[in-house]
Design goal:
single chain; alpha+beta; six-stranded mixed β-sheet
Length: about 300
């Protein structure tokens, strides 16, 4: 079945896009990750996201349009891999750890309920979810009612829903929605007295890694032919985008709603564990069957550091 919905909005059609110069963005030493304090009642957000609202949430790509941007190298720093801490004996499923840490993201944007994907990563505060920048903020407005449903399965939330107390993004996405820096994070509130990664475990996260490696990517695509009910994956070799960004690229048929889902290096199919090194971000109209995700450089690491300290 031919799909077109995936190629609208951010995961989007860039055919004929007028590329314009962006305003200058300060260097990593000068610019801090953008930070939004959600200031919400966690119980109210949890109550808001009923199974019916989760099922009816539309992929964010149907609500947004592609911004103008120019290709540029993402700033790099020292090669860093932050490994996930050993699991102390939490529940595992036959599909492995990723079925617990990856989940569906729900939020309200412009008065409409929408969805993305995300992943729980190891962090000092045990509460960090990594997603795409456009899954936390778009066109000057931070999304509201932001919640994370790890292990989401057709309306079921086996590990609960985790409301964000704050959401963050890179300074470049904050300033000009630069697709090279389409990275976001959420710090979620405790649930029933427990922290997120104490309940679902955590994947490792990696920065400033070598390009063009084999990777796995996961998400909850909700545009046809998918419906957002299950976790979908792609795997294979990657390449560096040679068109309008310097993102990672991979052959993948996932559609809208998969935005923000994790890309893993060193992923084990046996255990479902890896180290996250990108997120699902966009696709080109004129290049169907390919997914692109931002390189995790210094600015993504700064974002992660701020989120885990929040």
């Amino acid at each position: 079945m031919k799909r077109t919905a995936f190629r609208t909005g951010i995961l989007a059609a860039l055919t004929g896009l007028a590329v314009t110069a962006l305003t200058a963005v300060a260097s990593p030493a000068q610019a801090a990750p953008a930070h939004h304090r959600a200031a919400v009642d966690a119980q109210a957000v949890s109550a808001y996201w009923t199974p019916e609202r989760m099922r009816s949430a539309v992929p964010i790509e149907q609500l947004v349009s592609a911004p103008a941007f120019t290709p540029k190298d993402v700033a790099k720093g020292k090669s860093t891999i932050i490994q996930s801490m050993p699991n102390g004996g939490g529940a595992w499923t036959g599909a492995g750890k990723v079925v617990q840490t990856a989940g569906r993201v729900f939020f309200t944007m412009g008065g409409r309920n929408a969805s993305c994907s995300g992943d729980a990563v190891t962090s000092a505060n045990g509460s960090v979810v990594i997603t795409a920048g456009h899954c936390v903020k778009y066109q000057g407005a931070w999304h509201t009612n932001w919640t994370f449903a790890p292990g989401y399965d057709n309306g079921k939330t086996p590990y609960g829903t985790w409301a964000a107390k704050s959401t963050l993004t890179t300074p470049q996405w904050e300033a000009s929605e630069d697709m090279n820096y389409d990275v976001g994070a959420a710090v979620v509130n405790p649930l029933n007295g427990q922290k997120l990664t104490d309940v679902v475990g955590a994947q490792g996260i990696a920065f400033n890694q070598a390009r063009n490696q084999s990777m796995y990517t996961f998400g909850y695509p909700a545009a046809a032919p998918y419906d957002g009910t299950k976790l979908i994956y792609c795997s294979g070799s990657t390449f560096t985008d040679f068109l309008l960004t310097k993102d990672h690229g991979m052959s993948c048929d996932m559609t809208g709603g998969s935005s923000g889902g994790p890309w893993f290096l060193n992923f084990s199919e046996a255990t479902g564990a890896g180290v996250q090194a990108s997120v699902n971000s966009f696709g080109y109209n004129f290049l169907p069957g390919y997914m692109f995700g931002p390189y995790f450089g210094t600015d993504a690491q700064n974002l992660y550091d701020k989120a885990q300290a929040a």
